[in-house]
Amino acid sequence: MKKLLIAVLFVFLFIFFGTIVGYQIIKRQMAPEYDGDKELLDLQANSEVYFDDFGIPHIYAENESDAYLTLGYIHAQDRLFQMEMMRRVGSGTLAELLGEDLVDVDKFFRTLGIPKHAEWSTEVWNQEHNSSSKSATEAYIKGVNQFIENGKLPLEYSLLGEKPRPFTINDVHSIVGYMSFTFAMAMKTDPLVTKISRQLGPQYLDVLSVHTLPEHHVIPNNYPYRNPETNDINFDETLISLLDKIPVPLLEGSNSWVIGPTKTASGEVLFLNDTHIGFAQPSVWYEAHIEYPDFSFYGNHLAGVPFGLVGHTREHSIGLTMFENDDQDFFEEKLNPQNPNQVLYKDSFNDLKIKNEKILIKDKEAIDFEIKESIHGPIMNDVIPEIGRLTDNPVASWWVYIQEPTKALEAIYKMNHAKSIQEVEEAVRLIHAPGLNVMYGDKAGNIAWWAAAKLPIRPEQVNSKLFLDGKTDLDEPTGWMPFEENPMSVNPTSGFVASANNQPDTLSNGTFFPGYYYPGDRWNRIAKTVSSRNDWTQENIKSLQLETVNETHPIIAKSMIEAINESAFGDFEKVKQALVNWDGNHDLESISPTVYYKWLYHTLHGMMADELGEADFENFLKTFLYIRSVQNLVQTENSPWWDNTSTEKIEQRKEIILNALEKTLKELESQFGKNISNWQWKNAVKLEHPHPLGAKKPLDRIFNVKAPAVSANEESINKLAFDLNGEGIYYVKSGPAMRIIIDFANVEASESVLPTGQSGNVFSPHYSDQAELFATGQYRPQLMNESQIKNSPSGILRFSPKRK
C-alpha cells in the first residue's frame, strides 16, 4: 500500500509539473512581447514602445508613417483575434471560420449590404490621391500584416486550426460598417411597431412612446453665429459677451459631458466620456499613446482602425455618444403576381436586382445565397424573421449608411490631428452615418457638441417607425438637411454640454427630428448635478460618473403600490417600506431593485404577452421603446393593454399589478429564502465578459472574464444594463466601455479605466487586470508625461528598419 501511494503521488506530481511546464511552453510561444528588439520592413527610422503598468503602449517615432506602422504591429499582437472577428462580421464571412451556426449571421450582413458597401468605399479609396490619412492607414495595415507574418499568433487560431489572412483596407471598411450597424435601432423596432399598428390598432400605440413625449428631456441646441458667405463659425463674436466675465472663453462640448471654465475649480475645461457598448472580452477599446514631431495623441481605438475615435491631445479632446437618429426606413413593396422577381413602382413593374453569393462554411460544403434588391434597397424578409412573419410582401431596407462611401477614416484622422475647434467641425461634417454625438473640449476654453450625420428630409405624412409604401415615391426622402441645421451646441451660456442618447431639441429649421432616443433620465441627472455647483474637479466629478440612481423607477414603483390594497404585501411589509422609501439607487445591499425589476417584468408580461406573443414580448423588452414607454405604460389606467385577450372577462390595471406582485413575492421567497436581507441586489446580479470562443465549455473557463457584482441598473448615469426577465437573475450585458476624465488644467493627469484589460491575448498579464478596478469604480492614469513613462516602464520594445 505504501509503495502504491508513493507511485500515485509520483504520477500526480509528474502530471502537475508537466502541466506547468507545458503551460509555460505554450505561453512562451503565444504571449505578447513587451520587451526586446525587432525589425520592421518599411520603417524609416528607429521607434520605441514603452508599456506602462497596464500594458498600454506609448509609441515614440521620428515620423507619422513609422508611428502608425508601429501601432499596427502592437495593436495586432494584443488584439489580432478581435480584429479577425470584427472584419468577418462586417464582411459576412464568420461561417468560414466558426462553422455553419453562423451562416444566418453572414446572410444577414450580406443582405443588409455592408460587404458591398465596404467594397464600394475601398474602390473610392483606391482612386483617391494620397493624403495623410491614407498613408497613415496604409502604414498601420503594413504593421498589422508584419505581425501576422512574423509574430506570435494567439491561442484562438490554434484551437480553430486556422491562420489569419493578410489585413486589407477593405477589412477596415468592413469593421466601420459593422460598427455603423450596431447603432441601427430601426431593425429591432420598426417591425414590432408596425405589427402593433396593424394587428392591434392605434389605441395600443397611443400608450407607447413611439415618438418622444413632452415629459422626456431634450438636449438644448445653441447654434453659433456663422459667416453668411462661408458658413464658418466666428468664435470671436460668439464669445465676446462672455470674455469680460471669465478669465478664459466659455467652452462646451454615451454619456459625455464637457464642463466649461466658469463651472470648474481650475478655471479650465473638464471633459468626461463613457461610451456604452456591449461587454465582451476583450473590451472594445484599445488604448494607445503616439508621439512624433508636432503630434502627441492619446486615443481609444477600435480593433483594426488606426485612429482613435475617442482621445485627446494636450490641446483638445474628442468623445462620442450615439445620436440615435432615425436613419433607416422600411418600404413594403408589391410583387408582380405573374413574376416574383418584379415589384410595382410608379404604375409599372420593375425588375429586382438579384445577386448570387457563395458562403464558405468551415468543414462543410459552401452554399449559394441570393440577395434581391428593389429601388429602395435590399429585401430583408428572409434575414429578419419579424418581417417575414408580418407580411408576405417584400420589405426593403433604405439605410443612410449605404447611400454613399464612408469617409470615416478621413474624419477620425482629422479629429485626432486638429489644431482648432474649426478643424474639428470640418472633420465632423465628413461623417454621414452612423449618427454620432461628437463631444469637444479644448485648452482655450471652448466646449461643443455636434450631431454628426446626414439627416434625410422626409415628407410630412411619413411616420418613420412604420413600414412605408414602396409602390410610389410619396414616402421617399426628398433630400438632406444642411449640416448647419444639425443639432449642436457651441459655447452655451449654461457652461456645459451633455449628451446621453436623448432627443435633441427642435432644430434651427423647426424640425423635431425622429429617432430612437432614450427618455433623458441620464441627461437630466447630469444637467441638474453639473448646474448645481461651480467648483467641479477631476476628483469630485467621479461620484457623478459612477452614480447608479434612476429617479423614474421609484415613481413607477410607488404608482404600482398605490394601485393595489395596502395589505397586499402581507408578511412582506418590510418589502413595501423599502420600495416606498427607495430613492432609485441601485446599491448592492439594497433589496428594492431586486423586487422592483421582477415585479415590473411580471406586470408587463401580464399586460402584453397575450397580445404580442412570447417572442415579440421579449423583443419589446430589448428595444428603446420599452425604456421610453414604461412609465406611461404602467401608470395609464385605461390602457387596452391591461385586458388579457385570452380570457372572457376584462381585466383591470389593479388586477394585473396585484397578480404580478403575488408571483414576485412567491418567486423571490423561493429563490432567496424567507429572510429578505438575502434579497439584496448583489445576489441577483452577474457580470461576465464573454469571449467569442467562451460560449463552448470548457473554453469559457479559459477565455471569459468574470467580475465582481456591479450595481446593475436601467438608465442610471453609470449604466450597467441587462435584459429584464422573469427569472430574477440579471446578467449585465453592456455598460461603459471606458470611463474617461480629463482636466485641462493638467492633461497629463487624466484618468480612465477599461472593463477588463488592454490585451485580448489570454497569456498576457493585461488580459483582465482592470476588471476589478472597473467593477469597483476605480480609475488608473492615462500617462502622457515622457519622463514619467520612460523612467519606469513595465517593458520596452525597440523597432529598427529591416532591410528587404
UniProtKB/TrEMBL annotation:
The keyword Cell cycle does not apply. It holds the Pfam family Penicil_amidase. The keyword Metal-binding does not apply. Keywords: Hydrolase, Zymogen. Belongs to the peptidase S45 family. This is Penicillin acylase family protein.
